[in-house]
Amino acid sequence: MKLKKLVLTGAAGRLGSYLREPLSKMCDELLSTDISDDIGTLYPGETFVKADIAKFDEVEPLLEGADMVVHFGAIVDERPFEEMLGPNFVGSYNVWEAGYRHGVRRVVYASSIHAVGMYPKTEFIDTEVPHRPDTFYGLAKCFTEDLGRMYWEKRQMESVHLRILSAAQVTNPRALGSWLSYDDLIQLVTRAIDTPVVGFTIAYGVSNNDRAPVDNARAAFLGYRPKDNAEQFAKEILGEAEPADPMDSGTMCHGGPFASVELGQSAVKGMGIVDDRKKT
């Protein structure tokens, strides 16, 4: 299925950098957008427009003629609520409302495990568990998932909410279960786009890890079948790790460091995430 027009928000981000090329091959026109001034060399059929998703008048014209939106634009860390409000809460409303006004059929949204991050890791959770956010960042994911459900039930606008666990290089024991490889990310987004009917769907963004702590069975109809497994890194990672503290919520909860950080304080700062975004 080749679409006429796709819109990608957050195109300058690390995950956006890996999505741009495969998305450009799925449509006649890929409109990539971000608050950054530049995203590098454009792929065939791709255009770039600088825009702030927190401003409706900048978002709305981008979605004209679009079939679907892949919405990855946001602050990707914990911040004070006032800083999150525009890009992470209002930005989601702007995408859905502008999409509705222009007849967009579906939004594929980068949700997060942090919408349910306070569940203990000893609980194998599925996509139907009630929200249990670990931060204001996670709360924004809950808001957008509920927004998507409402627009489906009230306005028949489809959405797939990808609860990404950790799409980054495996550098710690938690990632042995939570890793989402870039190849599997691309497959997951592709399935969220090319599945004929999705309604309102939540799916976990996680690779085929032996230690994966979540259950994607209810989203099996998407046809997402991850291929990569973080167990290949287990011997090295566990051999270098300090003993786990069972009283530390960052160790015991699905949200990892986001579960233990103070509200409004950065959780990403100490995670050692490698900025290996794809260069163009």
From TrEMBL:
Q: Which Gene3D superfamilies does this chain map to? A: NAD(P)-binding Rossmann-like Domain (3.40.50.720)
> What are the entry keywords?
NAD, Oxidoreductase
**Signal sequence, start to end:** none
Task: State a single Gene Ontology molecular function.
Answer: oxidoreductase activity
* Xref: Pfam families: Epimerase
InterPro entries xrefs: Epimerase_deHydtase, NAD(P)-bd_dom_sf
Task: Using the record's annotation, list all stretches that form the NAD-dependent epimerase/dehydratase domain.
Answer: 7-164
Record-stated family: Belongs to the NAD(P)-dependent epimerase/dehydratase family.
Q: What is this protein called?
A: NAD-dependent epimerase/dehydratase family protein
